[in-house]
UniProtKB/TrEMBL annotation:
Name of the protein in question: ABC transporter ATP-binding protein
Keywords: ATP-binding, Nucleotide-binding, Transport
SUPFAM superfamilies the UniProt entry points to: P-loop containing nucleoside triphosphate hydrolases
Gene Ontology molecular-function annotations: ATP binding; ATP hydrolysis activity
Keyword match ATP-binding: yes
The keyword Ribonucleoprotein is annotated on this UniProt entry: no
Length: 307
């Protein structure tokens, strides 16, 4: 049984704007799901609906088997949420602030648990510092600490590395990997697609309030990935010879490079024939280079295909 189940959920605001259009999504316990989508796609509305912040217009959402509307307290107890916004009390000390978040869920004081969370996020040395004294990256860590204080089984990270420098971002993903090892289910939205490619088990793509796909990362890239062959010429050309028009080549680098795209799953790549035709067209090759399409390429193509 999935730990999160979203069943035909819609959300229409008073203005008439429909943010979610019949979303169905199941998330397994212990996995990392990266939810990708352009601005306004419905990512934050979907997360807010699962967390009980926004009430769906129709449909049903279960977290750990609890309905997020009719069994709000039981469902919310299982969830940790790290929002995009850095909304922290500026004069509150870090340690007590994290401990207070635990109390919001009716849990007893547990200094050892709070210390463990602060140490895990490299915040222990800052436990007595006030929030306003911290950098943006450290504030982001405090948000994660507050979300983990009550030991949730599901953690939502909404753009968790926005405004964080490269070093802190790398450290944060180490924390995410450790949480996964501990069995925490993690759902993240990110604009850094290379992060999703590096850490996620499955990729979900949402656009215009609808889920376009949810698929294992490796399977998605194998199914939809393409390779590019860069043919570097010894001498630049002003235009692609007419004899090569059937290959749909792209000319770049001041006429010094031809780009040929091919499907890795097809019976033949056409490269051997292309190289022969290049020679017949009088073009002299300096070098060849291949590149596998990235998750970002696939994401852009998927969103482009929307009507």
């Amino acid at each position: 049984m999935p730990i999160v189940s979203v069943q035909d959920v819609t959300k229409t605001y008073a203005s008439g704007f429909q943010a979610l259009k019949g979303v169905n999504l199941e998330i397994d316990e212990g996995e990392i799901l990266a939810l990708l989508g352009p601005n306004g796609a419905g990512k934050t509305t979907l997360i807010s609906s699962i967390c009980g912040i926004t009430r769906p217009s129709s449909g049903r959402i279960l977290v750990g088997g609890h309905d997020v509307v009719t069994q709000y307290r039981q469902a919310r107890r299982l969830i940790g949420l790290v929002p995009q916004e850095l909304n922290l009390e500026p004069f509150a000390p870090v340690g007590p602030g994290v401990a207070f978040s635990r109390g919001l869920f009716g849990l007893r004081r547990d200094p050892a648990r709070v210390e463990a969370v602060l140490r895990q996020l490299s915040l222990w040395e800052k436990r007595n510092a006030r929030m306003r004294e911290l950098s943006g990256g450290m504030k982001r860590r405090v948000l994660i600490a507050k979300a983990l204080a009550h030991e949730p089984r599901v953690l939502f990270l909404d753009e968790p590395t926005a405004g964080v420098d490269v070093e802190l971002r790398r450290d944060m993903w180490k924390v995410v990997a450790e949480l996964k090892r501990q069995g925490v289910t993690i759902i993240l939205t990110t604009h850094y697609i290379e992060e999703a490619e590096a850490i996620a088990d499955r990729i979900g793509v949402i656009a215009d309030g609808q889920i376009l796909l949810v698929e294992e990362k490796a399977q998605l890239m194998a199914r939809m990935g393409r390779k590019n062959l860069s043919v570097h010429l010894r001498e630049p050309v002003a235009a692609i010879p007419a004899a090569l028009a059937g290959y749909e080549l792209e000319l770049c680098n001041g006429g010094r490079t031809l780009i040929y795209s091919y499907d890795t799953k097809s019976d033949g790549t056409g490269i051997t024939r292309l190289l022969s035709d290049l020679q017949a067209a009088g073009l002299s090759l300096r070098d060849l280079e291949t590149r596998q399409s990235s998750l970002e390429d696939i994401f852009v193509d998927l969103v482009k295909e929307r009507p």
